[in-house]
Amino acid sequence: MDNETFRRYGHEFVDWLADYFENIEDYPVKSRVTPGEILSQIPLSPPKTGEDMSEIFRDFKEVVMPGITHWQHPGWFAYFPANNSPASVLAEMLTAGLGAQCMIWQTSPAASELEERMMEWLRDMIALPSGMSGVIQDTASTATLCALLTAREVKTDFRTNEEGSSGDLRVYASSETHSSIEKGVKIAGYGKENVVYIDTDENFAMIPSLLQEAIESDIKSGKIPTCVVGTLGTTSSMGMDPLEEIGNICRKYNIWLHVDAAYAGTAALVPELRGFMKGAEMADSFVFNPHKWMLTNFDCSAYFVKDPEALVRTFEIHPEYLKTAADQKVKNYRDWGIQLGRRFRALKLWFVIRSYGLEGLQAMVKEHVGLTRQFLELLESDTRFEVLAPVQLTLVCFRYNPGGLDEETLEEVNRSLLEKVNGSGEVFLTHTTLKGRYAIRLSVGQRNTSLRQINKVWELISQHAGD
User: Among 58, 239, 402, 425, which residue's CB has the most CB atoms within a 10 Å radius?
Assistant: First the structure.
């Protein structure tokens, strides 16, 4: 492709994206294709000669687009959001065009130094301690794995990297913790059997007294308590673990405290919403995802540590071909995580923060929290429905319960209700199970969601309830 053709299609693609943003409500939120439908339209073998971009773009619209579930649709109430924004998309275009591989300072000084400053901005924006240092990871799952590995090395005086794991190290998390914790534990060599799940209270938050009992029991049996994962905003119910109490226990027993605030961390941009962060200053590591609620498209996960030397010592490598004269003066982020090769993720973060400003981001968060409260009022005005978890920030867990139905029947009728609501194509919600009870989850956080969509989703829910 010559430069003039690239220029022409670049303009065409931007125009298409602008139209997509403007008309996204014309699409059903959830893709309606059946398994294998897209695959059947893609040739079994690649083309022998290059094809014209007009044909490729046509197939994008006709083959790919029907199989897209539209996360940027204002009727998106599923999972948690994975927002983008025009500023972030434009920055990603520049990142792709530059094609920089940002593994060390020398390979792109601007990428390294912009990342360093953006992490300082984010740290201060959510009121983490000024002594914490940050790095951009791809996802919270990767950040948590980094925490588990660093905790492992600190506990074993960095011998595990040399000798392998003994199988005696223990990790603790609430029974509501994210599945990435178990996955990280397996990858890090702790062993699945060394994850200790702590029961939660009526608010789906870890019970600190049970954590302490588990730690003391392990010590007596010769196990080595190594890491506690506290969660601020569990996926199922937005449960908030009591970090201050957990942090005091970790200090008492010299255990690494990692805090997973993947979605909820963005709410800490707003001072009056920061109550759930009490005790976060006691964390050894902390992660939240700007790519969820902070308008920065996937992937961009902000990972902070109190002791960057421990992180670097866990991951550092010194092959001759990567040594440079600047190494002692700069941060080489290849040593701050698992990946050697790194994308220029800081650019889109810089674009978003400058484009919206702190006040604009705070206004977005407050609007979504307000919309959630408005939905809750509608829900509570109808006695056929019950709320199954405390409403924290922007998540409501509820079910239709007209009375007189057993748990098995309640699950059946709520599954049916969810299918009918999602079948409209106008909104998309998901489900979970809370202490054995089937619950419908409504998560407010998509950039363009307004009161109109709140009223629409309530109209669909109340209309199909009892069908």
Answer: 239
- With a cut of 80, say whether residue 318 has pLDDT above it: no
Q: Are 115 and 135 in contact (CB under 8 A)?
A: yes
Identify whether residues 330 and 370 lie together within a single domain: no
**270-286: pLDDT as tens digits:** 999 999 999 999 999 99
What's the pLDDT score for residue 8? Answer: 94
Q: Determine the pLDDT at residue 320.
A: 61
Model's pTM, two decimal places? 0.94
pLDDT at 327 over 90: no
Q: CATH number of the domain that 62 lies in?
A: 1.20.1340.10
Looking at the structure, tell me whether residues 202 and 310 fall in a common domain: yes
Assess whether 182 and 277 both reside in one domain: yes
Question: Per the structure block, which two tokens stand in for 349?
Answer: 């973060």
Whether pLDDT at 94 is above 70? yes
Q: Which residue range is the domain that position 174 belongs to?
A: 100-343
Q: How many CB atoms lie within 10 A of CB 438?
A: 19
Q: Over the stretch 419-428, which tens digit does the pLDDT of each residue have?
A: 999 999 999 9
Residues of the chain with pLDDT > 90, as a percent, come to 90
Q: How many domains does the chain have?
A: 3
Looking at residue 178, its pLDDT comes to 87
**328-361 confidence digits (pLDDT tens):** 888 888 899 999 899 999 999 999 999 999 999 9
- pLDDT at position 321, please? 61
Q: Tell me what the pLDDT averaged over the chain comes to.
A: 94
Beta-carbon contacts of 280 under 8 Å, excluding residues fewer than 6 positions away, are 128, 232, 243, 259, 261, 286
Q: Residue 163 belongs to a domain with what CATH number?
A: 3.40.640.10
Q: Report yes or no on 83 lying in a domain.
A: no
The answer to whether residue 173 is domain-embedded is yes
